[in-house]
Specification:
Blueprint: H1 4-21, H2 25-42, E1 47-53, E2 58-64, E3 73-77, H3 87-101, E4 104-109, H4 120-134, E5 142-147, H5 149-163, E6 171-175, H6 187-190, H7 200-211, E7 233-238, H8 244-256, E8 261-266, H9 279-291
Parallel strand pairs: 3-4, 3-5, 5-6, 6-7, 7-8
Antiparallel strand pairs: 1-2, 2-4
Length: 294
């Protein structure tokens, strides 16, 4: 049964959902930045942040004070519907990840739509990934981690890498991945009233300005791609989110393609619940830390 705090937070999300659903892209970006800055402050004394200069986007490496293994790293791809999420936002959860796993975490603030539509995000993710390889990190020692759009982007990146003959990473962790921008999942209808935070109308708008007519491209909707022998995956989703079936379809597709995958659907929880300070999220972060352990 969900904790009292979890139930209270769910109700707060439900109350502000109409406001969030109608927010402009600029407002969504500002809100995510504020959330990221809060997360960064909570663990600031336990990490060191080093910015990296890329030509087209901003990035930074978060190094935990008690780094467990400098040969293993996380590449974190943030969420935000491909339209929101700057470096301050990415550093928020990226810093938490670094502390919880003991691994250095590269946070890539890839370019956003509508200014930079597909394939800008996957191009920038690839640039960040290749930077790690050039720095001497072995591909099998890289974990891709993404939530929401970033979760789908992690799989899109692997398809992009394979097309170019680049070695795939060692593991993938996806939180509520947005992996099907054609909106074919039944959970859009089944969880329409249950979902306390996500709006299908807003997601359809984001999909249009990010991908346009390319929504069926595997590097946009990875559930439609060849995921043959992809790296081991750990996927989380909430039972009440409209994107639940994206996670389910992704798991099924990975299994069809002989790829190792574990899916955990948290009963009564919402989109990217792992990013919230609820007991269920702490349990998930413990599992994630064990999964990425060198």
């Amino acid at each position: 049964m969900a904790s009292i705090f979890t139930l209270w937070l769910r109700e707060q999300l439900r109350l502000i959902k109409p406001i969030v659903s109608r927010a402009s892209i600029e407002t969504a970006r500002q809100a995510q930045d504020m959330a990221g800055e809060l997360g960064s402050r909570m663990v600031a004394s336990r990490v060191t942040v080093e910015e990296i200069a890329f030509d087209r986007f901003k990035a930074a490496v978060v190094i935990p004070n008690d780094c467990a293994d400098s040969d293993h790293v996380i590449l974190y791809l943030h969420g935000g519907g491909y339209v929101a999420g700057s470096l301050p936002y990415a550093l928020g959860f990226g810093s938490v990840l670094a502390v919880r796993t003991g691994l250095s975490t590269l946070c890539a603030a890839y370019r956003l739509a509508p200014e930079h539509p597909y394939p800008a995000a996957v191009e920038d993710a690839c640039t960040a990934y290749k930077c790690l390889l050039v720095s001497g990190i072995a591909a099998e020692n890289i974990t891709l981690f993404g939530e929401s759009a970033g979760g789908g982007l992690a799989y899109a990146l692997c398809l992009w890498l394979r097309e170019r003959g680049i070695a795939l990473p060692g593991r993938i962790v996806a939180i509520s991945p947005w992996a099907d921008l054609t909106f074919s999942g039944k959970s859009y209808r089944e969880n329409f009233l249950k979902d306390p935070s996500l709006s299908e109308e807003a997601l359809r708008y984001y999909a249009e300005i990010y991908a346009g007519r390319n929504v069926r491209e595997p590097c946009v909707s990875p559930v439609m791609g060849d995921l043959y022998r992809f790296p081991p995956s750990l996927i989380y989703a909430g039972s009440d989110e409209i994107l639940k079936d994206d996670a389910v379809m992704l798991k099924e597709r990975l299994e069809e393609c002989s790829s190792e995958v574990r899916l955990h659907i948290a009963e009564g929880l919402w989109h990217v619940y792992v990013l919230f300070w609820v007991p269920e999220a702490q349990e998930a972060l413990d599992e994630i830390a064990e999964f990425v352990k060198p």
